[in-house]
Design brief:
Elements (H helix, E strand, L loop, with lengths): L12 H17 L5 H24 L7 E3 H6 L4 H10 L1 E5 L4 H17 L2 H4 L17 E2 L5 H7 L2 H11 L5 E2 L2 E2 L2 E5 L6 E4 L8 E5 L5 H4 L1 H6 L1 H4 L32 E6 L10 E3 L5 H7 L20 E2 L2 H8 L3 E2 L8 E5 L4 E3 L9 E5 L4 E2 L1 H16 L26 H6 L4
Parallel strand pairs: 1-2
Antiparallel strand pairs: 2-13, 3-7, 4-5, 6-16, 7-15, 8-11, 8-14, 9-13, 9-15, 10-12, 10-14
The structure holds fe (ii) ion.
The site of fe (ii) ion has 3 residues, from loops.
Amino acid sequence: MPLPHWEETPADLPTAIREVKTALRKQIAASGRTVEEVFAVVERKVAAEVADIVAAKARGETVWPVISYDDIEAGTVSAADVALLRRRGCLVVRGHFERSQALGWDAGIVQYVEENKFFENYRGPGDDFFGSVGSKPEIYPIYWSRAQMEARQSDRMARVQAFLNNQWKHTSDGVQWFDPERDSLYPDRIRRRPEGADSAGLGTHLDPGTLDLWMTEAYQQAFRHLFNGDVEKYDPWDAAYRTAGPQYPGTTMCSAFRTFQGWTALSDMAHDQGVLHTVPIPGAMAYLMLRPLLNDVPDDDMCGVTVNQVFPADDKWHGLLMEALSGIPDVQAGDSVWWHCDMIHSVAPVQDQKGWGNVMYIPAAPWCPRNETYAANVREAFLSGSSPSDFPAEHYERDWTNRFTEADLNETGRRGLGLV
Ligand SMILES: [Fe+2]
């Protein structure tokens, strides 16, 4: 019996949740093991990783793997470092860019927004996801500065993205699901959080999708090993069926397939100044996907996941995972930070922040059918200086001077936007 699936957001969410949960439970039970037995296998594996992370923290070790850009460029990353990257699913790339280059980009952004009178014309947060109180924004809804585009199309960015993409299985069953050597330059915003800032941070959540993760045919195939009880075969690095299917629209959606989320530091940031945290266990996705099928969760509830809101992870349903939440180490301007697209993450709160907290969000979004489709929209937004369609329609840059232009694109930039 195929699973019921909805290629568009179901009109009646509680009914659809009940239906899909019943079908998933039945399909798992057909494997000869109950949902509880299958979940226990996942829980044991995840618990071992949590224990390892908790112990590493207790020993005062940095949980996040750190690899130098020079080793990535030279192809000299050790097997042990690659193994740790794959185990933890996250990475700091030291010296991804020269510190002076990153500080120059930060200054360039300031000049770009000031000469175009951004602060005078700022209309407040365009969404409530990153919304913060105060007249000056911390998230700049700016996409097309020279700094951002130079970083996106740089050889150094392309090299790191290819290195990260290649941690994934991109070809299987005779299909190349994505091209690890070509990025689609997913445009995102900038964060500049000033010295002295108080910030509530951002709660633990994940970004790959919402109810569509259980309900569309493509995701049901992507998570087939979880949904047919064969959990030992689930591989969080397998891109099969993830790069073409539909997603339910919503204000928090990401149209692109990202192997890793990421940002590049434009200022030095100490580890205790409201920085990014993850639950550094890629396989925890199995836990997150199966947890709603246990009997203590109401039949019409997916552990709080619903459309148009980020996928929440919390103590109520995922207490075990929360113990592993781990922050990045100190970073310098020019370092970059990456985490597997399915991993739980948060931004810690900070009071009276020391130093700036400035980043450019640049993920790894390799070329695939989904990203090729979105690239058509990105091209149009780039040429007109508009906000890309995944983001609020603020369009600040349309008539700005000194925007990065088509003539400034290099080969990587043109390939990334689908112009060649
Ligand atoms: Fe997020």
